[in-house]
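To whoever is on call:

I kicked off a structure prediction for a single chain this morning and the downstream step that reads the tokens threw a length-mismatch warning. I double-checked the sequence; it's 261 residues and nothing unusual in it as far as I can see. Pasting both halves so you can look.
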Amino acid sequence: MSQPPRPAARARAAEKPLTGRLRPPGDKSMSHRALMFGALSTGRTEIDGLLEGEDVLRTAEALRRMGVRIDRGEGGRWTVIGAGLGGLGEPDDVLDMGNAGTGARLMLGVVAGAPIRAVFTGDASLRRRPMARATAPLERMGARFEGRSGGRLPMMAIGAARPAPIDFESPVASAQVKSAVLIAGLAAPGRTQVIEPRPTRDHTERMLRWFGAEVESDGRAASVMGEAELIGRPVSVPADPSSAAFAAAAAAMTPGSEITL
């Protein structure tokens, strides 16, 4: 029977230089958006580098339940056959978003801009998180939400048959809230604007432009022109810098290492 390595052997193994090339997992925030915007587009969206973590897969399954075809092909390339704005169907079961806070709040915006109903839930952690920051402006646009006290999941979302464009001055800086409002605004007749107390990440604005929406932004303010026609486009999800930090730190601590991320 082989014996476990002695402490000195383990130490030598730990000091072995790290070399080679590594692509960290895809960015989660952009993976959620790539699936959603592909679903709201007409035509075909091909996605490379999608993060295949539980949160993103929950978003993919929720969109499938609304009638969107989403397939994983060879080499990790995902294909979304979009339903277009107004083309989503009413899901026949509860949308379980697991622990995906970003996925849940952005999907509330997707449903708010469509004439459908959907019930959202999640795991114990997500069910404790309030959704009111996102649902309050969406209600001004004509959607309705019926959830637990404090605006928590499980929650019924009732989309607006004809969403109204709004100017919303958010009391908090939140890319999730901003994104939910802009996504719902895609179906509204006119311009929807969100003003924040300070700038937040602009993944939604950049990706909506790529899919063909008319978007304006100047840091704190972002707006989208409604009744947009999104067209399916190829998306290459960039690798996540925060995930890359683990490999970079390991290489930095190990003498003689040289890796390319």
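Update from on-call: the warning came from a stale cache, not from the record. Cleared it. Sanity check on the structure: The chain has nine helices and 14 strands.
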